[in-house]
Amino acid sequence: MPRSVNAVASRQRRKKMFKLAKGYWGARGNVLTVAKNTVEKGLGYAYRDRRTKKRNFRALWIQRINAGAREHGLSYSELMGKIHAKNVGLNRKTLADLAMNQPEAFKAIVESVK
Q1: How far apart are CA 93 and CA 60, in angstroms?
Q2: For the whole model, what pTM was predicted?
Q3: Separation between Cα atoms, residue 1 and residue 22, nearest integer Å
């Protein structure tokens, strides 16, 4: 009995991998084993860095809030402590946006919690 291979599925699997490797340099884009290794590595980096991005943005927001708070004579930790004590329902992302783009509104918040 002749050997049966599922060429349709194999071709789909290879096409999917090459589609993910589109634009890679040299053999990474057109040799299956190299492309597969590169794509798997890239997907791992993407998974990791989706989490890293959240950390980086939080750090950026904290720096912006700290800079805004120091203009009004408070440190970041003092400001956040007073905001939590007064139950102001603003998160760091919103506070950072206010500190950068609407300094008057940020000043009003700082004055209300002082």
Answers
A1: 9
A2: 0.77
A3: 39
- Check if the beta carbon of residue 21 is closer than 8 Å to that of residue 28: yes
d(CA 19, CA 4): 26
Kindly give the residue spans of alpha helices, DSSP state H, lying in the chain: 7-20, 32-71, 76-85, 92-101, 103-113
Tokens at 41, concatenated: 């590595």
Model confidence at 67, pLDDT cuts 50, 70, 90, reads: very high
**Rounded (5°) CA angle 65-68-74:** 90
Torsion of CA 80, 84, 86, 87, to 10 degrees: 130
* Encoded tokens for 80: 């956040």
Please give the tally of structural domains in the chain. 1
Nearest CA to 23 out of 40, 38, 41, 43 is that of 38
Question: What CATH number is associated with residue 57?
Answer: 1.10.1900.20
